[in-house]
């Protein structure tokens, strides 16, 4: 059968799982083999995540994001903690064996420290440790400031990466300090308790990751310890609702229904026709331009870019902080063109 322009395109790449490591009773790490021709696409920055397609007899697949715990440059490794009654995390923790293949979108995400050499505070709870470990590994690979990791868990048995962190502290005692908070000993983290655990941290940036109630408390603790609200960054672990692996290619639009798009990505400029009903990310992907993206539902911020000329209308700006909007950022997956010509740049 001949493919028509309306056939949906399946995005992502099939990667083989090289290694499965059980970290705790509830968490596994999966390391992927990346073939040489994809190596460049799968280079990640510390704090980024992969999006995995988890097979489902009910829906075909579900898409879920998992932060990379590996150091940039190492084979990509994600760490999955089973969510009570969760479908994908349960499947990944139970079903995946070395040699299995999974469909994966390249690394994405903006939870990446601006300056890895600066002193910073990392506050994690449970599986929120995964992006922090990648950040710690990347920061310790070069000279730089002191890292304070506040790490909350239910009890000693649920501490993911306890040994890895001990070894990193032993190797870099002057750079890394890990301060644990165990619910079994101290109850749930409180603003006062976390502030006391951190001590005065002045203008250091804080990076937060964990369940929503933990991040709310940690956000207040960061400010109480001296951080400006703008210097507090957080990664929100939620489940995607849509399917970012499928791209519905639109019928080619007439001149009236399309704008001229000039988009610069990785130093290359592309000239494309941009149908008014299409989003920026979709029109780029449909034309073989590898736009950075993950959720394609406005929540992850991976496709943040700036409109340097022309205008777009956005369906949602959920992933953008007020400062991002002030700085002129838009979400590529939510942007449709207004007017005859739009010029866009990705950082
Ligand atoms: C940027 C980012 C990074 C993240 N990083 C991590 C990480 O490092 N580690 C980590 O553990 N988590 C991480 N998460 C969270 C992760 O993506 C998932 O949200 C989490 O694993 C829970 O997913 P779940 O499917 O197990 O649970 P849920 O999403 O709670 O599962 C329930 C959902 O699955 C549906 N469902 C149930 N059964 C089926 C079925 N048979 N077929 C289809 N659907 C079904 C239900 O309808 C319901 O909607 C991250 C999230 C984000 C956004």
UniProtKB/TrEMBL annotation:
Keywords: 2Fe-2S, FAD, Flavoprotein, Iron, Iron-sulfur, Metal-binding, Oxidoreductase. Signal peptide: none annotated. It comes from the Bacteria. Residues 259-347 form the 2Fe-2S ferredoxin-type domain. InterPro entries: 2Fe-2S_ferredoxin-like_sf, 2Fe-2S_ferredoxin-type, 2Fe2S_fd_BS, Beta-grasp_dom_sf, FAD-bd_FR_type, Flavoprot_Pyr_Nucl_cyt_Rdtase, FNR_nucleotide-bd, MRET. This is 3-ketosteroid 9alpha-monooxygenase subunit B. Residues 10-114 form the FAD-binding FR-type domain. PANTHER family: 1,2-PHENYLACETYL-COA EPOXIDASE, SUBUNIT E (PTHR47354:SF8), NADH OXIDOREDUCTASE HCR (PTHR47354). Its cofactor is FAD. GO terms for molecular function: 2 iron, 2 sulfur cluster binding; 3-ketosteroid 9-alpha-monooxygenase activity; flavin adenine dinucleotide binding; metal ion binding. Pfam families: Fer2, NAD_binding_1. Its EC number is 1.14.15.30. It comes from Nocardioides zeae.
């Amino acid at each position: 059968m001949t493919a028509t322009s309306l056939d949906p395109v399946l995005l992502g790449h099939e990667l083989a799982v090289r290694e499965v490591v059980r970290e705790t009773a509830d968490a596994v790490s999966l390391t992927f083999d990346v073939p040489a021709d994809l190596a460049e696409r799968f280079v990640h920055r510390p704090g980024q995540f992969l999006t995995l397609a988890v097979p489902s007899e009910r829906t075909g697949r579900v898409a879920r994001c998992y932060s990379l715990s590996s150091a940039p440059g190492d084979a990509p490794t994600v760490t999955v903690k089973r969510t009570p009654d969760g479908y994908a995390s349960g499947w990944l923790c139970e079903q995946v064996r070395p040699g299995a293949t999974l469909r994966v979108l390249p690394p994405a995400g903006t939870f990446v420290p601006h300056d890895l050499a600066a002193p910073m505070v990392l506050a994690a709870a449970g599986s929120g440790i995964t992006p922090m470990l990648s950040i710690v590994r990347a920061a310790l690979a070069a000279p730089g400031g002191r890292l304070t990791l506040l790490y909350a868990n239910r009890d000693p048995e649920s501490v993911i990466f306890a040994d890895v962190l001990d070894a990193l502290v032993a190797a870099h005692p002057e750079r890394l300090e890990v301060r644990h908070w165990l619910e079994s000993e101290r109850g749930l983290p409180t603003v006062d308790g976390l502030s006391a655990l951190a001590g005065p941290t002045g203008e250091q940036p804080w990076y937060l990751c964990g369940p929503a109630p933990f991040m709310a408390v940690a956000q207040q603790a960061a400010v109480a310890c001296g951080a400006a609200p703008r210097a507090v960054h957080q990664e929100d672990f939620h489940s995607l609702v849509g399917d970012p692996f499928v791209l519905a290619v639109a019928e080619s639009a007439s001149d009236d229904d399309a704008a001229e798009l000039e988009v610069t990505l990785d130093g290359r400029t592309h000239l494309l026709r941009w149908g008014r009903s299409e989003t920026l990310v979709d029109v780029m992907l449909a034309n073989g331009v590898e736009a950075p993206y993950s959720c394609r539902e406005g929540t992850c911020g991976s496709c943040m870019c700036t409109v340097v000329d022309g205008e777009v209308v956005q369906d949602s700006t959920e992933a953008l902080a007020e400062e991002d909007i002030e700085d002129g950022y838009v979400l590529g997956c939510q942007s449709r063109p207004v007017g005859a010509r739009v010029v866009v740049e990705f950082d």
